[in-house]
Amino acid sequence: MTFLDHCQKKTLYLGEDELIVGERGPAPKAVPTFPELTCHSVEDFKVLNTREKQPYTISQEDINTYAEEVIPYWKGRTQRERIFNHVPETWRRAYEAGVFTEFMEQRAPGHTALDGKIYKQGMLDFKQEIQAHIDTLDYLNDPEANDKAEQLHAMNISCDAVILFAERHADLAELKAKTENDPLRKAELLTIAEVCRWVPANAPRNFWEALQMYWFVHLGTITELNGWDAMNPGHFDQHLAPFYERELAEGSLSREQAKELLCCIWIKVNNQTAPPKVGITAKESGTYNDFTNINIGGLKPDGSDGVSDVSYLMLEVIEELHLLQPGSSVHISPQTPDKFLHTASKVIRQGHGYPSIFSPETYIAEMVAMGKSLEDAREGGCSGCIEVGAFGKEAYLLTGYLNVPKILEITLNNGLDPLTGKLAGIKTGKPDDFYSYQDVYDAFLKQLNFIVDQKIRVSNYIDTMFAKYAPAPFLSVVIDDCIAKGRDYYNSGPRYNTNYIQCTGLGTITDSLSTIKKHVFENQTISMDQLLLAVANNFEGEEKLRQTIVNRTPFFGNDDDYADDIALQVYEDLLAAIDGKPNTKGEAFHLNMLSTTCHIYFGKVLGATPNGRLAGKSISDGTSPSHGCDVNGPAAVIRSLTKLDHTRSGGTLLNQRFLPSLLKRDKDIKKLGNLIRTYFKLGGHHIQFNVVDTATLRAAQAAPEDYKDLLVRMAGYSDYFNDMNEDLQQEVIDRTENESF
């Protein structure tokens, strides 16, 4: 009923010349808070209003309303308070030390992608389906019948809500048409009204209606319960291609008209800024990006190539608009034409960080191994950054990041966090008691398993809280099996229900262990006491020692089996600690190697590490090598990375940075395509590129006004370089600058 009330009363916006209508707020880039998830304090709003990078403008009137009405009402009732009032002290100490984060302590899980059902069924069709299941509820033999009835009635009301929302836009368009003097704009407004009268109540009949249908569903999901995360249309080009091809053949739509409508959708997504964060995150997390990801290319459910002219149109839109969002990814299978890869590579050459590239062969194998059908896996892909799932059929929840190098740090301090001085893990022995590398690794492994178990226990509790207190009935309508089961998206309703823990810092942990193994135990050129003292003092007065480590240690990402075997062992043990642990929905937790920007936060709460990394510096991102440590070129990097079995994870992230001069000629573009094909043939999951030199990045720091549109790839998304804080900017600068293939 709250969602319906919102759709009845919210202020509408219909902008000048726009063709696709609807905003989450009363105007573009206006965004709500979600106090039921986490309630902002007055101090949070002051921080958001005044922070130097990416501030949010919050009126004093709104701050007063929060202080006088919202904060008192929600005190003690928010999801965040429920969580922190429940967690055990062992979890809290590890969390406060930065051993892990918890996504759902201040937002909804998100990361949702749709399949093609909304282009074949309207909300009236879903209402019929819902009513049919209500009519067959067995109140005599099914103890869940009453709960199912409540859920199904909520779904039914949510369908009415978005229909009403669209009708209100139709009324507004007709009202504007009455006073419009420009005949062309008047006709457009009347078409908008016609479109909004038809969708989302009914299945779309043409390209324009298909786009507007998706947009109303998108707005419904991010308005209902999305406190900051990815909602996207899945294989958008594949969903739109039948409408486009039919209308093109009929002559009722031109290629340029279709491209204009696609541009309108891109602009709409760009208008939806991420909801603001709270607490420490409000101070540090500065992106406006809401992580929508448009999947382009890939495979159809029958296994055939999914590339169409709409795919090329989308690449043109990305190239010409180069907006902050939506993000985009191209999916390159063996069936994908070289022409498409070549075209995508030319867009990459622009240097905006979009699109990223995925291997359907790898992620389909990942999903099938986790229990999805082959057809459902083929219809899947990426929802936000690099995590994958079965589109329209799966709730795949990212529960937070794991600071793997931090686990080594507390292991080398017998369970203590040297920054807080508190016990952040368990006592696994003093370094003096480690007589071999295996002793060190065994202690690390004990610590790892303890930390993971602590995280999963609380993640499972949080899942039950969302199922009970924060359902998403509208989202449940458009995800397979929720209606049939009479269960919510957050309560085992979808066909598949997966939880991920995102492990960060593979390069840093590998290189640190390699340093200990090589120098302390094999060569015995550095004692454990000497190394740990240097680390504790941030290598002050020990630059010669640090340079010895940096220059004479086998590091991950150079096709060196010494380091790569350590990375493989860590990866296998992360899998053993996480993969298959039960979640609350009768399914399991899985490993995901995603970092977003958390590797920078994790670096801030981590002292110096044995690999020569200084305290406070970023740890390595995703499965990428440590910054500046991959010295043998990108071919060596992909050989190192593919020694890991990517099909056993839910996603691996690989960042690479190229000089612009490396991609100047068409033959260079072909080389980039060959590199991508080779990586995927060897089993890689994902790769993305920054094409920018250090001189440009330094110049942008010195004269930001001259580089306002400089977009760079941060993690699973791109951001404006000038909007990033100094830590984020430096992290991009520190990445290895490749001069050759």
Radius of gyration (CA) equals: 26 Å
Low-confidence stretches: none
Order of neighbouring strands in the sheet with most strands: 3-4-5-12-11-15
Q: What global shape is seen?
A: globular
| Head-to-tail CA distance between termini | 57 Å
Structural class: alpha/beta
- Percent in strands: 5-15%
Helix content: 40-55%
What does the main sheet amount to?
A: 6 strands, mixed
The overall average pLDDT, rounded, is 95
Give the strand tally: 15
Number of helices: 29
Written account of the structure:
The protein has 741 residues and is an alpha/beta fold. It has 29 helices and 15 strands. The strands form 5 sheets. The chain has a 6-stranded mixed sheet with strand order 3-4-5-12-11-15. Strands 8-9-10 form a 3-stranded parallel sheet. α14 (338-349) links the parallel β4 (327-331) and β5 (356-358). α9 runs parallel beside α11, α14 (338-349) packs across α27 (666-681) and α21 (506-522) crosses α24 (561-578). The longest helix has 34 residues, at 145-178. It is globular. The N and C termini lie far apart (57 Å). The model has no long low-confidence stretch (mean pLDDT 95).
Highlighted features:
29 helices; alpha/beta; about 750 residues; 3-stranded parallel β-sheet; globular; 6-stranded mixed β-sheet
Helices, strands, pairings?
Elements: H1 2-9, H2 42-50, H3 60-74, H4 79-84, H5 89-97, E1 112-113, H6 123-135, H7 145-178, H8 183-198, H9 207-225, E2 231-232, H10 236-250, H11 255-271, H12 279-284, E3 293-297, H13 309-321, E4 327-331, H14 338-349, E5 356-358, H15 360-369, H16 374-378, E6 381-382, E7 388-389, E8 394-403, H17 404-411, H18 437-469, H19 473-477, H20 482-485, E9 496-504, H21 506-522, H22 528-536, H23 543-551, H24 561-578, E10 588-592, H25 598-604, H26 634-641, E11 655-658, H27 666-681, E12 686-691, H28 694-702, E13 711-713, E14 718-720, H29 726-734, E15 737-738
Parallel strand pairs: 1-2, 3-4, 4-5, 8-9, 9-10, 11-12, 11-15
Antiparallel strand pairs: 5-12, 6-7, 13-14
